[in-house]
Structures are given as C-alpha cells and as structure tokens.
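Ops channel
N.P.: pipeline sanity check, posting one input/output pair.
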C-alpha cells in the first residue's frame, strides 16, 4: 500500500511492527521498525530500494497492485544490505532487464549475496545524475562507510528530497510516516540509539561526508531514510544532531555498568552511583546490571556519558563473561574522549580490576588509576575509597 510523500513521490515500504531484533540478535528493537522503499513517477518511473528478504513476496505483490511493474524504468539500490536489497530477487524475476543504479561496490555485494544473475547494473559515483523528466533529475552521492562501503544517497531535484538510506534513520515504526506525526521523545530516543550502535564507529567519516553534502549546496525539504520516520518538519534538525553526535559527544552524565555474583560488586556499584549524585547533584547517573539490561540501551547511555564506571568480580582468574563481551562491544563502537574507572570483588586471586583496566584502555577509554578492589564483601574501608574514585571520574 503506497503512501503519498510529495508530488509524484510515494512510500511503498513495509512497517515491521513485530520486529524484536536486527543484525541477527545484535540490535534490539523496542518500538518496531520499517523498511522504507520509495516510488517516483515522473516521465520515468523509478523505484528507490526494496525491503527485507522475509517480506519480498508481499512487497512485490503490493507493488503490482499500485503499478504495472514493466513501467519501472530503473531501480536505485542505495545499499546492498539485505534489509534494502532483499526483494530484488523476487522483483527481478518479474522485470529481469530493468537497470539497477548503484555503486561499483554495491554490485559486488549484491552479487555476493544473491549470485551473479546477469542483472543490468549501472555503476554511479558522487555527482553522477540521471534525468527523469519534467525538469527533474536524480543526483547520486556516495556515502561510504555509512555504514557499509557500498552505501550511497540519492537526491531528487525540484522536490528537494534526499533519500539518505541508513543515515538519519531509526528503528522505529511510525504508521503516519513523518517526523512531525511521531512521538517526539521516542523519535529522538531511537535516533540516538541508532546512531550509537550503528554509525558511531564511523563518526570521522560522517563528519567529512556532512561537509561534502554541505558543499554540494542542495536544498533539502525532506530527508527520507531507509528506516523509521521521514523528516519533513525542519529536516535539517537530524543533520545538525548528527554533526553534534559525531564530535566525541557527551552530556553531564556518568553510567555505572556491572555484573555481580554474590552482590558484593553490586553494592559497590550502588555506592558509586550515590556518591556521584552527592558530589555532583546535576550529573545524570545511570546504573545497569550488564547481564540483565539490554546492551544497546546501555551503550546509548554510555554514548551520552562523559565517564563510566565498570565492575566485575574475579572469576577463574578473569572477569565475568557478560562484562567481557560487553566491553568488546564497546570497543567496536569506538567511543572517544570518555573516562572510565573500575571496581570489583574477589575471593582469592583478584585479577578483575587489572583486567578491566586493560580492556577498557584497549577499547579507547581514558582509565583513571583509582579503583575499588574489595576482598570478599565490601566493608567500610572499601567504601571510604569511593569519594576519591568519583572525584577523579568527575574531574
């Protein structure tokens, strides 16, 4: 079912209300999502992207109800990942000779996933364009590493729509499609979560790409991403947020993340949180048990934080596997300019504090020397170290 976007541009995607995870189980979905595909009907008819493999037959069937598929002059594949290209196999069985415009890398990635099927690829790069009639054209802009090497965006002149693919999106189901119709709190919550967990590792490249887009001097009235709400009300607000988030973003916040075996490490975590609020009442404090909380939600709070405190007891001369995996994920996200302090209990060998410090340094955090290392259950002498520890985190 199509939904009108502007003039001769329609949304023909799929709203995925039941989706709970993405990228396997690596990304949690709390408020549904969407795979946005778009149909442009000028003198030439253009399909921009498709939807995920599980919905490919429904997508093609719905599209056939809207238009004669043979009237599609060409398809734009902004990105080869299967949540965007997944319906191409079913669609191209119907219209096998239809040209597909994409980057050279996208050709390799599409054929790598679906095999070499003899499709009619047209390779484009930044600045290339194609006329679609009525004085309008599509301009292609490579978006390498946002978030795959093949990614690009497509700009529609006259209507001033930027089809931005994975940039500026959210995993968020919005039946009304547009940002001004969405719950604003959830919209920005999902937007920053999406940025943190998918795009933050590429922040340096994002900054350069935003500068490049600005130099193209394209007027933008609508930003139409491949997931979530379409930005029509002040669309540049999300571009401004991305520019802010890309610069080692932090707020006046500290996140405490830990796992515990027999509640000793948990007690230290809670005392640290209390002491932060005592020393700096305006600082937001977030506390998470890593084993129980959603990792993407925690990482979003880490992204917003100027410092973190991470705790684990010692187990088998190491740290709990939940914490080890969590730190490895933090390393992937390439956080910048954030402090970290560590704490933990032990019974006999006591290596957890040193291991946590080493792993967090390796993950890019500025680790303070102060730590809380408690034999068995923490006592007053351990708690007395917390004020100095917190002062160093806040400094």
């Amino acid at each position: 079912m199509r939904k009108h976007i502007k003039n001769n541009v329609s949304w023909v995607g799929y709203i995925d209300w039941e989706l709970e995870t993405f990228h396997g189980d690596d990304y949690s979905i709390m408020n549904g999502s969407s795979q946005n595909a778009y149909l442009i009907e000028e003198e030439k008819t253009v399909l921009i992207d498709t939807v995920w493999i599980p919905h490919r037959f429904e997508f093609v069937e719905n599209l056939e109800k809207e238009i004669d598929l043979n009237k599609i002059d060409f398809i734009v594949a902004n990105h080869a990942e299967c949540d965007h290209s997944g319906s191409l196999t079913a669609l191209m069985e119907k219209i096998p000779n239809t040209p597909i415009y994409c980057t050279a890398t996208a050709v390799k990635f599409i054929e790598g996933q679906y095999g070499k099927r003899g499709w009619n690829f047209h390779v484009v790069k930044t600045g290339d364009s194609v006329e679609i009639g009525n004085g309008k054209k599509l301009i292609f802009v490579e978006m390498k590493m946002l978030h795959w090497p093949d990614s690009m965006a497509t700009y529609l002149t006259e209507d001033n729509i930027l089809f931005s693919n994975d940039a500026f999106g959210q995993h968020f189901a919005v039946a009304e499609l547009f940002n001004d119709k969405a719950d604003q709190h959830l919209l920005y919550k999902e937007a920053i979560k999406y940025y943190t967990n998918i795009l933050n590792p590429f922040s340096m490249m994002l900054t350069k790409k935003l500068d490049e887009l600005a130099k193209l001097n394209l007027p933008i009235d609508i930003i139409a991403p491949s997931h979530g709400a379409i930005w029509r009300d002040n669309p540049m607000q999300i571009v401004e947020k991305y520019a802010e988030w890309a610069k080692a973003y932090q707020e006046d916040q500290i996140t405490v993340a830990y796992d515990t075996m027999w509640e000793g490490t948990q007690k230290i975590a809670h005392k640290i949180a209390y002491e932060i609020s005592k020393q700096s009442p305006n600082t937001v404090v977030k506390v998470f048990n890593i084993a129980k909380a959603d990792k993407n939600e925690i990482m979003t709070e880490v992204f917003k934080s100027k410092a973190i405190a991470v705790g684990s007891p010692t187990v088998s001369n190491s740290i709990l596997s939940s914490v080890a995996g969590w730190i490895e994920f933090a390393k992937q996200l390439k956080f910048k300019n954030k402090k970290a302090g560590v704490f933990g209990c032990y019974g006999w060998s006591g290596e957890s504090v040193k291991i946590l410090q080493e792993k967090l340094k390796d993950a890019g955090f500025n680790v303070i020397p102060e730590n809380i290392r408690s034999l068995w259950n923490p006592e007053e002498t351990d708690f007395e170290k917390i004020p100095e520890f917190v002062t160093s985190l806040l400094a």
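N.P.: looks fine end to end. Residues 253-394 form a domain with the Rossmann fold fold (CATH 3.40.50.360).
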